[in-house]
Write a structure and sequence with these properties.
319 residues; mainly alpha; Farnesyl Diphosphate Synthase; 15 helices; 71% helix; flat; binds protoporphyrin IX containing FE; binds farnesyl diphosphate; UbiA_prenyltransferase
C-alpha cells in the first residue's frame, strides 16, 4: 500500500511522505487514537453500560469501558492510515503523525489493527459475545463502510457512516446484559441523528478543506444553503428521537427536562445557522459564527443528554 503511485478516487497520491517514521514522539501514538473524540464515544458507551438494569462488577465494567476506548482508538488509527492522502492536503489534519511523516503508514495500520483485535478479544473474554460482536461490527463499520467506502463516494457519507459512532451505547448495554434492548437502541438512534448536525455544522466552515481534498461532503456537493436546511431537518428528527425514551417511560422527568432544554437550544442554533446564508450562494457573511456555535453546542448536547440518563435513573428509578 505504500507506493506513491497508488491513487484513490480523490486522485491524490496515497503516500504523503514516503520517508515517514523519522522520529515519532509518544504523543503521536496518542494522537493516532483521536483521543478527544474518544472521550465522548466512551462516555456514551459507559452510560449504555450503567443504564442497564443489572449489577456489573466494577472490574468487569472497567474492562468493558477500556475495550470501547481501545476499539475507538484502534479504528481511529486505521482511519488515519487509510486517509493519509486526504489528511495531507487538509489544513486541519496535515500535521497528523502519518501525513506529517512522524509515523510510518504501515506502523499506524499495525497499531490500529492490534488495538482493534485486542479490544474485541478482551471484550469477549471479560463479558460476552454480543458485546464483542457489536464492538467488532462498529470497528468494521467505521473503517470499511465509512472510511474506505462512503466517505469518498457520497455526500450521505456521514448519515450512513455515522452509525459507527452510535454503536457504543449498544455495546455497553450488551456488555452488562448480553442483550440488545429498546433503551440502548433509542440511545443509538439519538447519536445517529445527532451526527449530521454535529458534523455538517463543522463542515460549513471547514468546507474548503474538503473541496481541496476531493471529499464529497454535503456543502461541497450540494452547497451551503442545502446543508443549512439539512442541519435543521436532522435537528428536528433528533428532537423527536431524544424525547422518545421519556415518552415511552423508559426514563423519567429529569431526562425529559434535560432533553427538552437541550433540544430547544439545538433547534435555536440550527435556525440561526439557516438564517446565516446572507450571500447569494448560501455562504455566510459572518465567518460562520452560528455554525461554529452549533458545532460547539453539539458536543455539550450529547455529553449533558447522556449524563442525564444515570442521574435520572438514580433520582427516579422506574422512569
Ligand atoms: C461520521 C461521523 C462523524 C464525523 C464525520 C465527525 C467529524 C468530526 C470532525 C471533523 C471533528 C473536528 C475534529 C478536529 O477539529 O480536528 C469532530 C470533532 C469532534 N467529534 Fe465528531 N464526527 C463524527 C461523529 C462523532 C461521534 C459519534 C462522536 C462522539 C460520540 C464525536 C465526537 C466528537 C468530539 C468530542 C469532537 C471534538 C474533538 C476536539 O475537541 O478536537 N463525533 N468530529
Ligand atoms: C466503538 C467504535 C469502534 C467507534 C468508532 C467510531 C468513531 C471513532 C466514531 C467517531 C466518528 C469520527 C471521529 C468521524 C470522523 O472521521 P473522519 O475521518 O471523517 O474525520 P477526520 O477528517 O477528522 O479524520
Amino acid at each position: 500500500m505504500s507506493g506513491a503511485t497508488d491513487l484513490l478516487s480523490t486522485g491524490l497520491p496515497r503516500e504523503a511522505d514516503p520517508s515517514a517514521a523519522a522520529g515519532s514522539h509518544w504523543r503521536d501514538w496518542i494522537v493516532l487514537l483521536k483521543p478527544r473524540v474518544m472521550t465522548l464515544v466512551v462516555l456514551t458507551g459507559a452510560i449504555g453500560l450503567y443504564a442497564a438494569p443489572v449489577h456489573v462488577q466494577p472490574f468487569v465494567a472497567a474492562v468493558a469501558i477500556l475495550c470501547i476506548a481501545l476499539a475507538t482508538g484502534g479504528a481511529g488509527a486505521i482511519n488515519m492510515w487509510y486517509d493519509r492522502d486526504i489528511d495531507a492536503v487538509m489544513r486541519r489534519t496535515a500535521a497528523r503523525p502519518v501525513p506529517a511523516g512522524r509515523v510510518a503508514a504501515g506502523d499506524a495500520l499495525g497499531y490500529g489493527v492490534a488495538l482493534s483485535v485486542i479490544s474485541v478479544a478482551l471484550m469477549w473474554l471479560a463479558t460476552n459475545w454480543v458485546a464483542a460482536a457489536s464492538l467488532a461490527f462498529s470497528i468494521f463499520f467505521y473503517v470499511v463502510i465509512y472510511t474506505m467506502w462512503l466517505k469518498r463516494s457520497t455526500p450521505q457519507n456521514i448519515v450512513i457512516g455515522g452509525a459507527a459512532g452510535a454503536f457504543p451505547p449498544i455495546v455497553g448495554w450488551a456488555a452488562a446484559t448480553g442483550r440488545i434492548e429498546l433503551l440502548p437502541v433509542l440511545l443509538f438512534a439519538t447519536v445517529f441523528f445527532w451526527t449530521p448536525p454535529h458534523f455538517w455544522a463543522l463542515s460549513l466552515y471547514a468546507c474548503k478543506d474538503y473541496g481541496r481534498a476531493g471529499v464529497p461532503m454535503l456543502p461541497v456537493v450540494r452547497g451551503a444553503r442545502h446543508t443549512r436546511w439539512q442541519i435543521l431537518v436532522y435537528t428536528l428528527v433528533l428532537t423527536a428521537v431524544s424525547l422518545a425514551p421519556a415518552v415511552l417511560h423508559l426514563l423519567g422527568p429529569l431526562y425529559l427536562l434535560a432533553a427538552a432544554v437541550l433540544d430547544a437550544g439545538f433547534i435555536l442554533l440550527a435556525w440561526r445557522v439557516l438564517r446565516d446564508d446572507q450571500a447569494a450562494d448560501g455562504t455566510s457573511l459572518t465567518g460562520d459564527k452560528p455554525a461554529r456555535r452549533a458545532f460547539r453546542f453539539s458536543l455539550l448536547y450529547l455529553a449533558v443528554l447522556f449524563a442525564a440518563v444515570p442521574l435520572d435513573q438514580a433520582l427516579f428509578p422506574g422512569g
